[in-house]
Amino acid sequence: MEKAQKNVLELEKKILKLNGKIKWVKDVQDGELYEMGVEFIEALPHKVMVLLQHLFGDNNK
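Above: the chain sequence. Below: its structure as tokens.
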């Protein structure tokens, strides 16, 4: 359990800047909660990987 908590803290220290366009927006909770699709523009692969690891976890550690 401590390892998982440490990985989350390590990810929170990373600053990630990506340019993107919002492609769609969906109201999922009567104006209280929204989902959106983003198209990343000129994103370097390693930056996309950092984002994916933050969102979905890194199962390789």
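The radius of gyration is 15 Å.
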